[in-house]
UniProtKB/TrEMBL annotation:
Protein's name in the database: BACK domain-containing protein
Organism: Gigaspora rosea
C-alpha cells in the first residue's frame, strides 16, 4: 500500500510554491530576491511556516530546500 502522507519536505515545497504564486511581481529565481521580496513572501506564509515539522526533514533537505529561504523563518526555527 503506497504512503499517501506527504513528506515534510514535499509540504515545504508546496507551501513555498503557493507563496510564490500569491506574491505578485516576484522574480522566479530566489537568488535575485531583495529584502522586500523575502518580506512579502514571509508575510504571505507567516501562518503556514510554523506548522511545518522541520525536525522530521532529512538534513540534506534542510540544507537544499529550507536554508535558501532562511530569511522568511523566525529566529526560533
Amino acid at each position: 500500500m503506497p504512503n499517501i502522507i506527504p513528506e515534510e519536505s514535499e509540504i515545504w515545497d508546496k507551501v513555498i510554491q503557493w507563496g510564490k504564486e500569491q506574491t505578485p511581481n516576484l522574480l522566479s529565481d530566489f537568488e535575485q530576491w531583495n529584502n522586500e521580496n523575502f518580506l512579502a513572501i514571509k508575510t504571505i506564509l507567516e501562518k503556514c511556516i510554523p506548522l511545518i515539522r522541520y525536525f522530521q526533514m532529512p538534513g540534506k533537505d534542510i540544507a537544499i530546500k529550507v536554508n535558501p529561504y532562511r530569511q522568511i523563518l523566525g529566529s526560533n526555527l
